[in-house]
Amino acid sequence: MDIKVTTLAGKDAGKLKISDEIFGLDPREDILHRVVRWQLAKKQQGTHKTKGRSEISRTGAKMYRQKGTGRARHSSARVPQFRGGGRAHGPVVRDHSHDLPKKVRALGLKHALSAKAKDSSLIIIDDLALADGKTKSLVDSFAKLGLSNALLIGGAEVDAGFKRAAQNIANIDVLPVQGINVYDILRRGTLVLSKAAVEALEERFK
What we know:
Blueprint: E1 2-6, E2 12-17, H1 20-23, H2 29-43, H3 102-118, E3 122-125, H4 135-145, E4 150-153, H5 160-166, E5 172-175, H6 182-187, E6 190-194, H7 195-204
Parallel strand pairs: 1-3, 3-6, 4-5, 4-6
Antiparallel strand pairs: 1-2
């Protein structure tokens, strides 16, 4: 599959042949859903916690005598029925993550890349570099390219000036190619890859 390559200034920079095995698949929503769910579950902190009845600091003495009061039989003020008592079946600190086979994760990334290519939401730029590191000049470049909500993937290392300039622009994310993931690809409207990122991805899935 041949795809057009542009510069940051919006000028034509030739064409690049990309692999159909990575960018030409028919996207499957079930695989994308599994990978996104795995990613989000792994991100959950799981630090939510409430105190159970055994953790409440209250006297252990019986509240009142067993018989003769006409009231229900109670032995502890720590139970959930009473104000200040423990929480019944409350959340506990736990790990929300679950396993997902490596092959499914790799396939999910291929399907996410293919989904962007199929929707014509994939742009290849020859080099993600900005000499002056100014946000204003980068905003002008994005306007020429029609980018308002995008994920930009550079090579092994993202140009420091480009990264600094992009930090102040809303709805724009910049990642090195090692950080590319399904969730970030799908949450942004357009995927922008540098030529170095395409080469790294094709080498990764070879």
